[in-house]
Every structure is written in structure tokens, then in C-alpha cells.
Design a protein that fits this description.
heterodimer; A: 345 residues; alpha+beta; Nonspecific Lipid-transfer Protein, Chain A; 3 domains; 5-stranded mixed beta barrel; 18 strands; B: alpha/beta; 34% helix
């Protein structure tokens, strides 16, 4: 084994996706039949080898390069190098012609088609929606590289990427051999000095969030604010009693400034707890803005801050840190489930 | 290119269970057995005369069991008889149809059951406390684990790629008002299907327009197929046996005159041997093969049961199969081709969007409906279509002809 890499605390099956062993007696609403339901799972875990396509991922990981393959006979270039033989050309002995591997591809290309933006995602990707995924043609490749697409300008919207849009391949700082180690951004969003440079990492780009304005302050919001602060404080006070909520916050440290139309508060996430700070918080990692402070009470009762952001009822200053918002969104359910369990005991 | 089979094959019996979002009161075992029982009753046929079967079961994860058919093949009267299980993505039904056809057409068996069943919505996402994200996730395991799955690939986004690349090529086609009108018609037609899942729904073009995006800007919520639990069984018989069974049952044989299949490659690109943007070549090639085998063309077809995974894909498939020119799929409504504006009956069952989509048997459900319409309306030719796998890779088409007793 040459090297071991890991994302500490991140699991191939997210903890929150795993149900406890449970059963229930239900009645079919259509025909009134009483049935037994049980929680089950089908799972298999792997150390999955990338086999013959490992050189592609190794080139991404170690050299920040994208490689393809070329048929010496018909000259077909493919990227990624998803096979090692040309499916069309044969040698004299009728075996399929071996491709020349390790062909370095340019890191600027164009979108083969307009990439779809997933709004309603599968379970494991719901936290990332809306997200885009498309295919990019690099150099003389006849095949398209499947790729995630990102804009540096904020949330992904239709029109940013279209068929033929020139894009640049950008590499993540931490590369572990997944197809998410690289992604595409529109070339015109890349600073000119970086456009011809290979191996550009995401950290070299300026990631802008949507413009966020100051909240609209009203007397009504101000009047509500002390009670809201109280409710939020009470809610975060329940986290130390909730193993699930503590797991949600594992290995996560953030200082969040919440600006509302009724006043400001700070949320300090550290050591699997959240501390509420009245008024301002110095040098916040993230700023969350909303007019109506009652949305915070809604959050403590299971309302989604992500949805508030999607609908424009709230905004954050750094969309790349939406994971923090997703973590906040998980907390109410975790606290509730643990409280229900305690009550049953 | 398909070869002419050794002997003719007819559908002599059919039964489909009602389509439901969830059959809480039934397992897949019961659904499959119910379908077989109904089909035997429809054909007035003794189970002892059935020599073999073919079963379409799309997904082991839906069934919560690898080789799920093993535990209920005996339920279907097929103990000690051959039962190949077919799984070909969304096109599992039409491919099972092809396997069952070959079993009879080859001369190996005279009477074969063609069964499709699926239970999908036991899947449950404990994060969102709903079923759909986990059902979508289960299908998403179909994408290659190295290059696409980690990026969030799903059936919806891969069909959206097909649709959006068609719209790149033909920006003035697939207009939302036309899509809305087709959906209104499909929804209306589902009311005439006693087994349709969404019989009580009222859909208008305006409601389609205002429904939320699923994949932006490809399609909206009211344009997507439903997840269904159900089963369907068709009885296939060779010429000779078919006429005899039909005399007893009093129903005409529905001859399978044409059959075609094609699978596009997984990888997209700018030229062959890659999948090309803006096309569903699998549908085109499958239809071409089926037309040639049957000796008919689109003008001969009076009823179509088309695998409408997503409404814009229905329109593209209609163009690929030659009913409208590529780039002018909206002619279906604008040129009054589709009934009731025109004469061509498309998805009288309500299709997969309003009728139901139990993946392993959806295309058998389509055949059940096409047979029903041929007999009820006294029409001559029907076409059934299936699509599936990433980016509509797999395509299958069958041409049915109403015979006489």
C-alpha cells in the first residue's frame, strides 16, 4: 500500500440514512388490510479497485492532469480512457487493437450539450441540490468526460452552461481518486491569467455567493426578537442530550453570524455543541441573513434553512459552505428523535 | 438486423393488476401470481399446458433480494419448468417480451408466460422520511461507479441530457404548451384504463406549466413517470396452438408481427461508436427493425403504447420512430396527428406517466393495453415501445396485429 487517504468522519453510508431495527403494524389505506412492516437494508461495502482506469485517477490525484487514450490505427481519441482496446479496429490476428494510454489532454474544452440542473435529487445527493452535471469534450477526444459543473457566481441557473460553452477543468485541493476530484467552470469565469494554466485548483478561483443585502429591520421584528433568541437558545441547549445531534456536528467548527430584521445573534459550532452569542460575533466564518427572525423558530421546529435560501427568504455569504447549513438543518430532527426515544424509555 | 422467426407467435391472453403507488397489502410474490392467474383465466388455459416462462424483474434492490424470482417461480405454476429472468433497465419489460417471443418462435416451446412484476416503493429514505429520494437513489445505482455515480447521476438527469441536447439542436421544438396538451390528453385517457394509477387526477397545460422543476430546464414534476407497484402477464402461443386457444377463449389472437431491439453505447461523444447528443438512436433502430420484420411502416400503425419515462422523451421517440420529422415533434398536436385532435391513438392506457410504471412489467402493461384497444376498437396494427438504462440507451419495439378467430 503506497498511501492511505481518508475524509475523517465521513462515511460511505451516511449515519443519518441508517434506520434502527424497527417494525410497525400498518393498515393499507386502499383495502384496509393489516400488515407488518420492518426496517431492512441491503448493503455491501467495498474496497473497489479502479483497475485499468487507475492511471486516469492517479494522474488527477498526483499531477492534476487529465489523460485520455488513442487508437494507433483509426486515431480515435477517448477521454476518459474508459477502455484499453479500440472496439472498432482489429489487429491481423483479429484481436482488438490496444490503445495508446496516457495521452495528456488540454484542460480547456467545451460542453457537449446543455447540462441538466438537478433540483430534485436522489437521497444521497439531496443536500447538494441544485447541482449540475454534464459532459465536456477536451482536445481531439471523440468521447465526452462526465463532469460536475459549477459557477463561481452563485447558485447554478439555466443559461450559464450551454452546448458549446467553453469550460476549464478545475481540480479540488483534496483529491482522493473520485470523479468529483475535478469539475468544470465556464472559462469566462476564470481569471485570464489562469485560463492557459494547467492544474488550477478550486481555491485559486474567487467564489462569489449571491448578493446579500442587510435585513429589513422593523419594529415588529425587533419586538419578536427576544422570544426568538430564547427559543433558539433553548433548542441548542438540547443538543448535548442528543447523541444524533452531536454526531451531526462532529468535526465541525464554525462561527455563524445570523442577521435578522429583529436583531443579530451568533452561533458558535464547536465540540459537538452550539453556543448562542447575543448580538455580534467577531470574524464570522459564515453570515446568514433573513428579514423575518421567526424563520429561526421555524428552523428549531424542523423547517429548512436550505429551502429559505432557495426561495430567497434567506441568504448566506458563502455558498461553498452550504454543508454548514445542511448540518443545521439536520439538528431539529435529530434532537426530536432522541427526545422521543428517551420518552419511550 | 433481425431475422425472420421460424414460426408466428400470438398473444392469446393477458392480465394486469391495478397499478398502485404502493401495494402495502401484497408482496411481489402475490402480485406475480395474481397476474398469472388472471392471464390464464383470460385465455381459458390450463396451467399444465404452459411449458415455460420469462420474467422481467428490473432491480434486485427494489425486491430486497438477489435472484428474487427464485422464491416465487413455483407460485406461478412454473415449478420444474424453465424461467429465464430478464433485467435490462427501464426496458426490462420489452426485452422480456423479446425473450418470451424467441422461446416460442424458435420452436422450443408452444406456450410461454411472459411476466413482469415490480415492487419499488418499499424503499424509504430515512433522511427525508419519504420514499421517492430512495427510489431514485436505487435506480441511481445503475450508473457506473467510477465516472458518473459520484457526480449525482440519476435516471432523470440522464434523460434530461437527452432532452436538452435535442433542444440544443431543435430549440423551437418541445414547446411547453404542446407538452401540456399531450399531458392533458394522457391524463384524460388514463380515466378509461381501469388499472391506471392516476385515474382521479386532473391535469391541464397550465398546471403542467406551474408544476415544480425536477430537472431544470428539461422537465417538470407533472411530466415524469410515476413509480408503481404491480404485475402483468401475457400468454404467448405458437401458431396452431394460438388459434385453438383463441377459439376457446373467444378472443382474437394478437400476432407479434415485428420485433426490434438496439442498445446505444454508454459513453457519449461526437461520433460513433459513441452515443450522440440530440438522438435516441436505439428507438430509431429498434423501430426500423420491427417495421421491416412486420412489413409495415408508421402509416399503418393506429395505436401506440410508448414508454414515456418523461414527456419530452415521448415526443423525441415519436420522431425517432418516424411518426413526425425530427425537430417537429410538436406536429403531434400542431398538425393534429395525435388523437383526439387526429387519428393516432398514443398511450390510451395513460402511459407510464398516468397509467403506471412498474418497471419490470411496464412494457407488458403496454402490450396489455394495445391488445385491449386493438380488440375493442377493431383496429389492425399497434406498436409497443420500451426504453431504458442511462440516457435512453436501450430501445425495443414490437408491432402487433389483430388476427381473427
Amino acid at each position: 500500500m503506497e498511501k492511505m487517504m481518508r475524509r475523517a468522519g465521513e462515511y460511505v453510508i451516511p449515519h443519518e440514512a441508517i434506520p434502527e431495527v424497527m417494525s410497525r403494524i400498518s393498515v393499507s389505506p386502499e383495502d384496509g388490510v393489516t400488515v407488518v412492516e420492518r426496517t431492512e437494508a441491503m448493503f455491501t461495502t467495498y474496497w473497489a479497485s479502479a483497475g485499468e482506469v487507475s492511471p486516469f485517477f492517479l494522474a488527477v490525484m498526483k499531477e492534476k492532469k487529465i489523460i485520455g487514450a488513442r487508437c494507433p490505427k483509426c486515431k480515435m481519441v477517448i477521454c476518459p480512457p474508459y477502455m484499453t482496446r479500440c472496439p472498432v479496429c482489429q489487429k491481423e490476428d483479429y484481436s482488438l487493437m490496444e490503445l495508446e494510454l496516457g495521452v495528456e489532454m488540454p484542460q480547456v474544452g467545451y460542453m457537449l450539450g446543455t447540462p441538466p440542473i438537478t433540483v430534485f435529487a436522489n437521497a444521497r445527493f439531496a443536500r447538494y441540490a441544485p447541482f449540475g452535471r454534464g459532459r465536456v469534450i477536451l482536445g481531439e477526444s471523440q468521447s465526452a468526460l462526465p463532469i460536475q459543473v459549477f459557477t463561481t457566481t452563485g447558485f447554478l441557473k439555466p443559461g450559464i452552461f450551454k452546448a458549446g460553452t467553453k469550460v476549464k477543468i478545475i481540480f479540488r485541493k483534496q483529491r482522493m481518486g473520485f470523479s468529483t476530484d475535478y469539475f468544470a467552470v465556464p472559462l469566462d469565469e476564470v481569471p485570464e491569467k489562469l485560463r492557459d494554466k494547467d492544474g488550477v485548483e478550486g481555491t485559486a478561483l474567487k467564489w462569489r455567493s449571491l448578493e446579500i443585502s442587510e435585513p429589513k429591520i422593523t419594529d415588529e421584528f425587533r419586538k419578536q426578537f427576544p422570544k426568538i433568541l430564547q427559543a433558539v437558545t433553548k433548542f441548542v441547549g438540547a443538543i448535548p442530550k442528543s447523541p444524533r445531534a452531536q454526531r451531526d456536528l462532529a468535526n465541525w467548527t464554525r462561527k455563524i453570524l445570523v442577521k435578522t430584521g429583529g436583531g443579530k445573534l451568533g452561533l458558535v459550532l464547536d465540540k459537538q455543541k452550539i453556543k448562542v452569542v447575543k448580538d455580534k460575533i467577531p470574524r464570522p466564518d459564515l453570515v446568514l441573513v433573513m428579514d423575518d427572525p421567526a424563520n429561526l423558530v421555524g428552523w428549531t421546529k424542523g423547517g429548512s434553512i436550505v429551502n429559505l435560501i432557495r426561495t430567497g427568504a434567506a441568504a448566506v455569504n458563502n455558498l461553498q459552505d452550504m454543508e454548514t447549513i445542511f448540518k443545521l438543518d439536520r439538528l431539529p430532527r435529530s434532537v426530536r428523535r432522541d427526545a422521543e426515544e428517551r420518552a419511550r424509555k | 438486423m433481425g431475422k425472420i422467426p421460424k414460426r408466428k407467435v400470438a398473444i392469446v391472453g393477458a392480465f394486469t393488476t391495478p397499478c398502485r403507488g404502493r401495494w402495502l397489502s401484497k408482496t411481489i410474490w402475490e402480485l406475480a401470481q395474481w397476474a398469472v392467474s388472471g392471464a390464464l383465466q383470460d385465455a381459458k388455459l390450463s396451467i399444465n399446458r404452459v411449458e415455460a416462462g420469462a420474467i422481467g424483474l428490473y432491480n434486485d434492490i427494489f425486491a430486497r433480494q438477489a435472484i428474487p424470482e427464485s422464491s416465487f417461480l413455483g407460485h406461478m405454476g412454473l415449478a420444474f419448468k424453465p424461467l429465464p429472468r430478464v433485467t435490462n433497465g427501464g426496458a426490462t419489460g420489452i426485452y422480456t417480451f423479446g425473450v418470451a417471443f424467441d422461446m416460442v418462435a424458435s420452436g422450443r416451446y408452444d406456450i410461454v408466460l411472459c411476466i413482469g412484476a415490480e415492487k419499488a416503493t418499499d424503499c424509504y429514505d430515512f433522511m427525508s422520511e419519504t420514499q421517492t429520494p430512495e427510489v431514485v437513489q436505487t435506480i441511481a445505482w445503475s450508473w457506473d461507479p467510477l465516472f458518473e455515480r459520484d457526480q449525482g447521476a440519476t435516471a432523470s438527469d440522464s434523460y434530461a441530457e437527452v432532452i436538452l441536447s435535442y433542444m440544443d439542436k431543435y430549440p423551437n421544438d418541445l414547446k411547453m404548451p404542446v407538452r401540456g396538451e399531450i399531458l392533458r390528453i394522457l391524463c384524460e385517457q388514463a380515466k378509461n384504463n381501469p388499472n391506471a394509477q392516476r385515474r382521479d387526477e386532473i391535469v391541464t397545460p397550465e398546471r403542467v406549466e406551474h408544476s415544480p422543476w425536477i430537472i431544470e430546464p428539461a422537465f417538470k414534476k407533472l411530466e415524469t413517470c410515476v413509480y408503481t407497484e404491480g404485475a402483468c402477464c401475457l400468454v404467448f402461443a405458437a401458431e396452431g396452438a394460438a388459434e385453438e386457444i383463441c377459439r376457446d377463449s373467444g378472443q382474437p389472437p394478437i400476432w407479434i408481427e415485428g420485433l426490434g431491439f438496439a442498445n446505444e453505447p454508454y459513453w457519449w461523444g461526437i461520433k460513433h461508436p459513441h452515443k450522440l447528443p440530440g438522438r435516441i438512436e436505439s428507438d430509431h433502430l429498434a423501430a426500423k427493425t420491427a417495421y421491416e420484420m412486420a412489413g409495415v411502416g408508421p402509416n399503418d400503425i393506429k395505436v401506440i403504447e410508448l414508454h414515456d419515462a418523461f414527456l419530452p422523451q415521448l415526443e423525441i421517440t415519436m420522431a425517432e420512430m418516424g411518426f413526425v420529422p425530427p425537430g417537429r415533434a410538436d406536429d403531434l398536436i400542431e398538425k393534429k396527428i395525435m388523437a383526439p385532435h387526429g387519428n393516432l391513438l398514443i398511450n390510451p392506457s395513460g402511459g407510464l406517466i398516468y397509467g403506471g410504471h412498474f418497471v419490470g412489467g411496464s412494457n407488458m402493461f403496454s402490450a396489455w393495453s394495445a391488445r385491449r384497444e386493438l380488440i375493442r376498437r377493431g383496429l389492425d396494427y399497434a406498436l409497443i415501445h420500451g426504453t431504458g438504462a442511462s440516457s435512453a440507451q436501450y430501445g425495443g419495439v414490437a408491432i402487433l396485429k389483430r388476427g381473427v378467430i
